[in-house]
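Objective 1b: paired records.
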Amino acid sequence: MKKLIALIGLALVTVLYVGYYEALEDGDIETILFIKKHPTFQMKFYNIHANDGEIRKVERLTEEERIWIVDYCRYRLGIDTDLKTQNDVEVCRKK
């Protein structure tokens, strides 16, 4: 019973603190794991900059892309942003 409780606890900690995103590296899609800066049940994140060579213009982002970037910045990088300026997008680009 203790082992089951420990296993459940470990699984919960893993779900809360480990995240990943997929990136195109040398023609292959690779899964990049990371330790989240804040706990959340969301495990899969989207790094909008992982596959692009260019920086997206803040005024051209869709609402869905804004949410993806805000989530990625908060949980991967530990940066809280409203994503209102181009500088906010560039700060979230850093790894």
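Objective 1b, second protein:
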Amino acid sequence: MSNLDELSSSPQAALDPQDEVKIVGQYYDDKTAKLVRKYGPGPRIHYHVGYYPSFEAPPRADDVTPDDIRGSIRRHQEDLLRYAAKIWDAEQRLSGRVLDVGCGLGGGSLFWAEEYGADVTAVTNAPEHAPVVEGFARECGVGGRVRALVSDAKQLPLDSGPYDAAVAIESSGYFDRPLWFERLAQVLRPGASVCIEELFITRPHGADVWAEYFYTKPATVLDYVKAAEAAGFELVDDVDATAATAPFWEESVAWTEAVLDSDSGLSPVDRRQLRISLLANRALGAEWQAGGARLGFLRFELK
């Protein structure tokens, strides 16, 4: 038995599945303003790590403004999508009808539509995000190619396909993987790709901070492979980018420190939440370095 076989996913919360979906949706609805503040102003707002193939530590917080650091974070988040586009051959695979499952505020959906001409269905379970995504799409001039769909990932409408690809950028950890792949097999065309960027555990409790801070359930690559194979998919690409994404947490810490130092108008509640975020981001950076998890890009194909 391999080490991966011995691993188990994070414990399932003792909640009804539908309650879990509602809790996660409400969590992201409540975070909208915070996401815009840290990663905005838009229209392409991303809520995922960045890609740093070469990186120098960010300057001291008293030498730069929060906007300076935010700009760097956003550039590296877009670099992550450009890296994904390269390894997934987006010109061929992500230029048709694409499902962006767990789309956040739609930054990735707009990226695939603007950069590759994709017709994107942006799937979210946060109802308040849908009009934001469609508003940003109109602002970018791709309103006709990006539509928001409020849906649980495992209940995607069967009459909406067939799609040429599905993408999940740091969102698949929220899904019931077997049911998600089963539904994807019903809405994707034969030969279609499922492209996943996610944090995967490599040993028990290897991503506990990630799981607890983001209310997600990280799993092993083997967990994904088993769920995908049961639904008729096969793994064709697996690329590790752990080291190249670790500096994101340094920049995230630097941004939070800069806001705490520069914004005297913060309420006590906001200041407390930022300090909690600061501690969590430092812990996430340590988790990235500890070897218990890896940031990877997977691509499955439907047989």
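The mean pLDDT is 89. The chain has one domain: 3-43+58-302.
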